[in-house]
Amino acid sequence: MLYIFMGPSCTGKSTAVKRIKEILDVEVFTGKDYLRMAKDENEAWQLFYDKLLVAASSAEDSAKDSIIYLITEKEELMRIADIENACRIRFTAPLETVKERFSHRMNGRLPQPVEKMLERQYTDWEDMDGDLIVNTSQSDDLKKIIELFEVV
After folding, report:
1. Residues 79-83: what's their mean pLDDT?
2. What is the pTM of this model?
């Protein structure tokens, strides 16, 4: 199964993956991790894309070929828009929560350019649909995601 965890920075995608990895041996890719698959970017993308297709076509209850692909930029999502049978899960949290979480990554300080980047990302993802939408500021939503993988 192919799971697409998508949404702006600091909405809980990596936290969810960490919890899922505790219960399930699933392969995880983030952003441009695929570049390690080959020396040439186009070849690496094709190998990665083929791997995503295999995962998307595997049985829902088979963890063997499952992949979680974390996406922060909408452009990355557009590159795989034609892959069918993927479970697209959009992660969200209130903008102020996102800013607070990101500031912790930067020793409590959130520079203006970073704040503007977060606001842009947040706006970009606001109207995006998913098979499931998870608001990680609500602990019940995060629990639902974990339970989804416990069943697999």
Report:
1. 95
2. 0.89
